[in-house]
Design goal:
The protein is mostly helical and 238 residues long. The chain has helices at 3-13, 15-24, 30-51, 59-76, 85-90, 101-119, 123-133, 142-149, 153-173, 179-190, 195-202, 206-230.
Amino acid sequence: MTHEEKAWDVYLANQDVFASVLQKFHWLTVAEGLDAIEDFVMYRLPTALRSYKASRGEVRPWLYTVFRNYVARRVATRDQGALSLEAVRSSFEPVDPAPPPEQQVEDRAIDQAVAVALLALDDHERALALTYFGTGPEAGNFRAVARKLHWPRDRVRQRLLLTLARLSGPLRDAGVLSETDARLCDLSLRLGYGPDELSHEVKVPHDEIKVTLKDVLRRIGRSLARVASQLPHPSLEG
């Protein structure tokens, strides 16, 4: 295994560490956070792993420190032509009416976790999610996405549900979803469990299942929409 392959494996196994670091730099846009992760995993981490020794202890605290220092240096050494911190912060300003500050902080945390989780998807899954939840001409339109891909609409819907299910694990690890909510998403979206089966598996009253699942999916969907608005419009190829 090459150092580059090992770096990617380390990233996949520790996505919550990256999300946690980016939450410390909450004024960064999602796009800037993704750029920092990609550059770090592709160029900095392979080199750092060459000098890492297991005797230092667990890899997660070491990874947190190395990535945090990398992001801090990246912020401190921005080019003069880069966005100012004020401009970066303003990119997160919500539309009127503004939610309370605590809600804005929670939204930023969710967005960073969603953005980090998106990196773990393959290019096609990521493009599909960002296209459907984005602001382009196919946004929110199963028919338009299906026509673009030359797929049946049911297949588009199924792939989107599976993508949302795959996001539930990383969002749980980042503290955005509870263990119960993440398991609810996985069982419902990936395995197709109905209300009766879900109630039995996650020990949530039957009459609360639909409300809980709808609330969780609404939170993830809104976050995907915010993230998609900050990233380049992806290209879908059939």
